[in-house]
Design a protein that fits this description.
The complex is a heterodimer of chains A (about 725) and B (about 525).
Chain A lengths: L6 H4 L9 E5 H11 L2 E6 L6 H9 L1 H6 L3 E4 L3 H7 L2 H4 L3 E8 L1 H16 L5 E7 L13 H7 L2 E3 L5 H18 L3 E6 H5 L1 E5 L10 H4 L15 H23 L4 E3 L6 E6 L3 H10 L13 E4 L1 E3 L3 H8 L4 E5 L6 H12 L5 E3 L12 H15 L6 H4 L29 H14 L4 E2 L41 E5 H18 L5 E6 L27 H7 L4 E5 L5 H13 L6 E6 L3 H17 L4 E8 L19 E4 L10 E4 L8 H8 L6 E8 L3 H22 L10
Parallel strand pairs in A: 2-3, 2-4, 4-5, 5-7, 6-7, 10-11, 10-13, 13-14, 15-16, 16-17, 17-19, 18-19
Antiparallel strand pairs in A: 1-8, 6-12, 9-11, 20-23, 21-22
Chain B lengths: L1 E3 L19 E8 L4 H14 L2 E7 L9 E10 L20 E4 L2 H9 L9 E5 L6 H4 L9 H11 L2 E5 L1 H7 L4 H11 L7 H9 L5 H16 L21 H15 L3 H17 L2 H16 L8 H14 L4 H8 L2 H10 L7 E8 L3 H6 L3 H8 L2 H11 L3 E4 L3 H11 L2 H4 L3 H18 L6 H9 L8 H20 L6 H12 L6 H13 L1
Parallel strand pairs in B: 2-5, 5-6, 6-7
Antiparallel strand pairs in B: 2-4, 3-4, 8-9
Helix pairs in contact in B: 1-6, 1-7, 2-4, 5-6, 5-8, 6-8, 9-10, 9-11, 10-11, 10-12, 11-12, 12-21, 13-18, 16-20, 20-21, 21-23, 22-23, 23-24
Classes of the chains: A alpha/beta (about 725), B alpha/beta (about 525).
Chain lengths: ~725, ~525
């Protein structure tokens, strides 16, 4: 079960004609899929489309009613490959994953799909993870559309436009026999708004029915000589068909006055940002009516020469607003102008920055600079010659600390990294490679473990060069999500086959945790539609890795350290793999907290653990924090004139995971930590014994207290 | 392409659409897990229920575990039949009306990002701190200054509403999203009545009562801000000393000796005396005052008694070292049990289990031996290995159980034995050496003597950490000795000490020492 449940929202997906849907972009896309008769859906989770996968999973009943098949694919390649069903059958299919990394993984299948061409509408919904909030390298999915020649839609970021784009995409795909990629940016995925719903449609042909009448056509297979024919087909038939459809159905939009000396050309996704800049310049009203002509590219690939040249007619200069680099669109549009022998001056990167997100300020500065040069009469006097007297605001950049994401309170991965830090104190620094997932937070302070990540499931593969071994063994870290995504084949068979001498730690937290707690093969949960509970160790044995150690409680830092030490020093040849398993605390708390509260209410016995620090014993060295970084383990300044440094302090958000006590023990830190287990609803005997003990202890305490001076205080 | 004609656009007018000023732009900066999404949802529902068009976005993402997150809401009045305004998906510098920050440094971040400007922004912030890892992991004090952020906020914002909305929420059995929503309502910056805010909470579902309580409390704080009274340099009244008459008489004598000291010295000497007497006994307290007296005799009023004042603090800390006896004593006191019961909210019907985490090493065990025997054992690797084998392992003691409690109670009562131990001898020798080193400078370079006294701050922690502290202390003193002849020696000593407190491995200290080597 995923971290966020959409069960309540999914009911809105049943809305029909004449209703209004209000909610998040992700849900609107799901609704649009249902309205457009999709026959099968799938994908792989990852921000910003994780919630789309969660919505789909929660909507499985509804989809089953409509005869729609839902797959939680093993990875993006599997998802893209599933679109093969639309090659021969007139069935609409949609898959979703994150861009650009998901598209990287899927690109093999996507290239084959694009070459074969499709019969039913094939839609790839890509959550473009670019700019603020992104967790990946800053690249564009755009390039994939260009290299494999499938079409790319980048609609204006509001719910009516996004849902319309889903409809347009399917129809464009079918009209041009080409898969279509619909790109939604981080904020568009989470943007809220309303749109008018239509009735959900059953697919005209369901995947189930298709199996009764299998189809194949060798002309669709990517083999010579058909592959050469595919290329010609793309250029001679599919592309022109797409251009015709885009033009006739007016998928791109033009706003503003017909005649003006200048115009703006923009990706659909940039629309709201551009309008806000124009609003601030006094060139657009609240509803976006612009005094500068806008050519909005809801389809960013292919670009239409004739349509663009038409827009440029009568203009002296146009500005291309294209986020990300390289500037594919600007290059293509320049070519159009050059080939047409046009004298229109095209501006773009240069006035606007080549790299980085086009934020409100970037947009305002860029458009203002362009207009100042190209059409100064359009700008208000204030902007032409700014004369502002702003007060000096003190510079806080040196004061405010950075706050990157990190392990949650009670995270079971923290003790693994504490153990690695401790073992490195014995062995010396190790060569460490990491993977994708929560464990990558281990590369940040206070652990600073792992210096590279090469992709999902590729952690151990990224250490392959060191497989031959040396003075110290290389260590790689991978999560359970990465293991099942791609790691088993790309990383572990690679280690096994090459007789690697390396050590790999698999962080098994029972979920694909970083993407929001989705179930995977080794999840411990019962899942009615998915096969779970497949131990990772079994898979490892299956590919011939002999030295496998299972640690069932990662919080046992001492044991983790000992197993790591053994893996790093054993004489056994071949890969050494440690599976470190404890449940993701975020998910565990979400599941167990309500149960525990219920049990307390019902009078059943419950032990609630929490850690604390004796502030008189703590000396304020913070060594414990350097082996933890837990949000609930913080500092407190004491009201004691004799103390200089703040002492450790644990707040009430502590979940009693045990890391503090284990680390204090394993690293021989200090005796300041204590664990308090509050027993709710103790048995009568237990309460009686406790009362007796308290009495004896109280007597001893008061006896001593009577013989010494009492200074008050906290101890 | 679809053609959209501009509706009623007067190309002559270059003024911004006056309706644009009707758009309310509200940004929220929070730390992952603070419920920024819930708060955003409430604000959005509230606006729609009041006939506004509203749009919210976030970059909370799943990668933002415990990291800084940003949410953004725009809203504008919408008449029936009117098209939806075009809203922006992200806040822009200089274009935010209401900035809500759920933590003090996030307020600072919002100022850095330009979202808080004097012409328009109302900043609503919680003043509590959720410390970043980089602040917490410093061996010294790495906590960023909230005062700096507050000072900047006063300049940057049109209005600041600041209070500890986190504590306020917890007091009312809720979370910070509810109290910030209350502050937003109380600030009166949205054109909606209080009942509409509360209706948004009620329609939300979970934990409504707690949310409404926190909402109401925060509403009051924001609506009737009391001018913040600068905390009067709170000289905490020392809690009264109590005890048997015989001991009290002796205590009064010692306290009178302190009272006779120059005021700045007495201010620290009294807590110092309390600390050492609590650590050992009254005789130890007298020795403390004797030591302090030696320092005082080398000091004078012209220097403001700085040396003696610092010595009063650090001699007390050095005398009250952390040994097994002290820890066992502190862990078994009644007051501690009471404090834990209160902190953990243990009710009478509950039973409390208390687990302590001890990991004594051979060094701590030998430290309890008589000084001479201990010294021999320490010098004998065979014996140390044996002791390590016997004692060096993690021990979890249940101090709510009798065997563990009694063990610690007995250990904590061994104060009479303490003076004979190896550890005591070592601490005394170290103390003497340190004081002598510092006092040797008093006549030639008073400031250097003061800085040397302050270097005692470097020694803290247990086992490895303690050893590392000693090593840093020694290195700082050694490096200072090499440049003790220079006029700026005191300044260098201070720099070395501060560098030593920056990181665990002592990289900053290495750098500082290299600099000294370059001119020493």
């Amino acid at each position: 079960m995923a971290e966020r449940s959409f069960k309540a929202e999914v009911e809105h997906l049943r809305k029909g004609a004449g209703d209004t849907f209000t909610g998040e972009g992700i849900l609107a896309i799901t609704k649009a899929l249902l309205e457009n008769g999709v026959g099968y859906v799938g994908g792989y989770q990852g921000a910003p489309i994780s919630h789309l996968m969660d919505v789909l999973a929660d909507a499985e009943d509804l989809m089953a009613e409509l005869g729609i098949r839902f797959e939680a694919n093993a990875n993006e390649a599997a998802a893209a490959a599933m679109l093969a069903a639309s090659v021969h059958y007139p069935i609409r299919g949609a898959v979703t994953f994150k861009g650009s990394v998901g598209v990287n993984v899927a690109s093999d299948a996507l290239a084959n799909l694009a070459s074969s061409g499709v019969n039913g509408g094939a839609l790839i919904i890509v959550g473009e993870d670019y700019g603020e909030g992104s967790s990946i390298m800053q690249e564009r999915s755009h390039a994939f559309a260009m290299k494999s020649q499938f079409w790319l839609l980048d609609p204006r970021p509001n719910l009516p436009c996004i849902t319309q784009a889903v409809k347009d995409s399917f129809e464009l795909s079918e009209a041009s026999n080409t898969p279509v990629m619909l790109m939604v940016r981080i904020r568009s995925c989470h943007v809220t708004g309303s749109f008018q719903t239509r009735d959900n449609q059953r697919p005209k042909l369901s995947v189930k029915d298709a199996l009764s009448n299998p189809q194949s056509d060798f002309a669709r297979v990517v083999l010579p000589p058909m592959s050469f024919a595919h290329e010609q087909d793309k250029i001679k038939n599919r592309w022109p068909a797409a251009e015709k459809f885009i033009r006739e159905r007016q998928l791109n939009e033009v706003f503003g006055p017909k005649t003006a000396p200048v115009g703006l050309v923009l990706q659909g996704g940039m629309y709201n940002g551009v309008i806000r800049a124009l609003q601030r310049l006094g060139l657009a009203d609240i509803w976006g009516n612009s005094q500068v002509p806008l050519y909005v590219l809801n389809v960013t690939y292919p670009l239409l020469s004739s349509e663009f040249l038409e827009f440029c007619e009568g203009k002296d200069q146009v500005l291309v607003i294209e986020e990300g680099q390289p500037e594919f669109i600007e290059q293509q549009l320049s070519t159009f102008l050059y080939r047409a022998g046009s004298s229109v001056k095209l501006r773009g990167k240069g006035i606007l920055p080549m790299a980085g997100e086009y934020t409100g300020q970037v947009m305002l500065d860029g458009i203002a600079a362009f207009l100042k040069e190209a059409a100064p009469h359009m700008l208000p006097a204030l902007i032409r010659a700014p004369n502002e007297d702003k007060p000096q605001i003190p510079d806080l950049t040196k004061t405010v600390p950075i706050r990157p994401p990190g392990f949650c309170t009670g995270c079971p991965e923290r003790p693994i990294f504490a153990a690695i830090k401790l073992v490195q104190k014995e062995t010396g620094r190790l060569q460490i490679s990491a993977d994708i997932g929560c464990h990558l937070f281990g590369s940040l302070p206070p652990f600073e473990i792992g210096g590279a990540t090469m992709g999902y499931g590729l952690g151990p593969a990224a250490n392959a060069a060191f497989d031959g071994g040396g003075e110290r063994r290389p260590l790689s870290i991978i999560g359970d999500g990465g293991f099942w995504h791609n790691g088993l084949s790309s990383s572990f068979t690679n280690m096994a086959f090459n007789k690697s001498d390396g050590v790999a730690v698999i962080v098994d937290n029972y979920y694909s945790a970083a993407t929001g707690g989705q179930d995977i093969m080794s999840s411990r949960a019962d899942n009615p539609t998915k096969a779970t509970k497949h131990p990772i160790t079994k898979a490892l044995k299956g590919i011939g890795i002999e030295w496998v150690r299972q640690v069932d409680r990662t919080y046992d830092v001492g044991k983790m350290r000992d197993v790591l030490r053994e893996a790093l020093t054993t004489d056994t040849p071949g890969p050494k793999v440690i599976v470190a398993s404890s449940e993701c605390m975020l998910n565990k708390q979400r599941r167990e907290k309500p149960l525990a509260q219920q049990a307390i209410k019902e009078g059943r016995r419950v032990e609630a653990p929490r850690f604390g620090v004796d502030e008189d014993v703590c000396t304020g060295d913070h060594a414990c924090i350097r082996l933890s970084g837990c949000p609930s383990l913080s500092l407190k300044k004491l009201d004691d004139p004799l103390r200089d440094d703040p002492v450790a302090s644990i707040d009430q958000s502590c979940v009693g995971c045990g890391n503090c006590g284990e680390v204090a023990d394993a690293a021989v830190l200090c005796p300041s930590f204590y664990r308090a287990d509050v027993v709710h609803n103790p048995s009568k005997w237990e309460a009686k014994m406790a009362a007796f003990r308290t009495k004896v202890i109280g007597w001893l305490q008061s006896r001593r207290a009577a013989r010494r001076l009492d200074f008050g205080g906290t101890a | 392409m679809t053609l959209h004609e501009t509706i009623g656009a007067e190309t002559e007018s270059r003024q911004a659409d006056p309706r644009l000023s009707g758009i309310i732009k509200l940004a929220i900066l929070a730390v992952g897990g603070q419920g920024g999404g819930v708060l955003t949802g409430w604000i959005e529902d509230l606006a729609r229920a009041q006939g506004y068009a509203a749009q919210a976005t976030s970059v909370a993402g799943v990668s933002q575990r415990t990291g800084a997150t940003v949410y953004y809401v725009e809203m504008a009045p919408q008449k029936p039949g009117e098209p939806v305004p075009v809203f922006s998906l992200m806040p822009a510098p200089g274009d935010v009306d209401i900035m809500i920050t759920a933590e003090m440094m996030e307020a600072g971040r919002s100022i850095i990002r330009g979202f808080v400007t004097p012409d328009r922004t109302v900043l609503i912030t919680s003043t509590h701190r959720a410390l970043a890892v980089s602040e917490k992991m410093v061996p010294g004090d790495g906590i960023a200054s909230s005062d700096e952020v507050m000072a900047a906020a006063e300049i940057a914002a049109r209005r600041v509403i600041a209070a500890d909305f986190d504590a306020l929420a917890i007091r009312n059995g809720s979370v910070i999203s509810a109290s910030l929503f209350g502050a937003l309502a109380g600030a009166g910056v949205l054109p909606f009545p209080r009942e509409a805010f509360e209706a948004a909470i009620r329609s939300g579902g979970k934990g409504i009562d707690g949310s409404l309580r926190a909402f109401a409390a925060a509403y009051e704080v924001a609506a009737n801000p009391t001018p913040e009274v600068a905390p009067v340099a709170a000289v905490k009244p020392e809690s009264k000393v109590q005890g048997p008459a015989r001991l009290m008489a002796e205590w009064d004598r010692l306290a009178a000796r302190v009272a006779a000291l120059p005021a700045p010295v007495a201010e620290l000497a009294l807590p110092g005396l309390r600390k050492v007497v609590d650590f050992q006994d009254l005789r130890y307290g007298a020795e403390y005052l004797d030591r302090l007296g030696t320092v005082l005799s080398r000091d004078d009023a012209a220097h403001g008694w700085v040396l003696s004042r610092e010595a009063a603090k650090y001699i007390a800390n050095a005398l009250a070292y952390d040994d097994i006896i002290r820890v066992a004593d502190l862990k078994t006191r009644a007051r501690r049990f009471d404090r834990i019961r209160a902190e953990m909210r243990v009710k009478d019907a509950n039973v409390l289990h208390l687990t302590e985490f001890f990991h004594p090493r051979a060094e701590e065990i030998v430290g309890m031996f008589p000084a001479r025997l201990g010294a021999k054992v320490v010098a004998d690797p065979k014996w140390m290995a044996r002791l390590t084998r016997w004692f060096d392992k993690g021990r979890r003691l249940r101090t709510d159980s009798l065997p563990a409690f009694v063990t610690l109670h007995i250990l904590g009562g061994m104060k009479g034995w303490r003076r004979r131990t190896l550890r005591h001898a070592q601490e005394q020798a170290h103390l003497t050496h340190w004081l002598d080193t510092a006092l040797a400078q008093t006549t030639r370079n008073y400031d250097l003597a003061v800085e040397l006294i302050r270097c005692r701050r470097l020694i803290k922690g247990y086992s490895d950490t303690h050893v590392r502290g000693y090593a840093k202390f020694d290195r700082v003193l050694a490096a200072t000795a090499r440049i003790a002849h220079r006029e700026d020696a005191a300044d260098w000593c201070r720099r070395l000490r501060e560098a030593a407190l920056l990181d665990e491995e002592g990289k900053a200290l290495d750098g500082a020492i290299r600099t000294i080597d370059s001119f020493a």
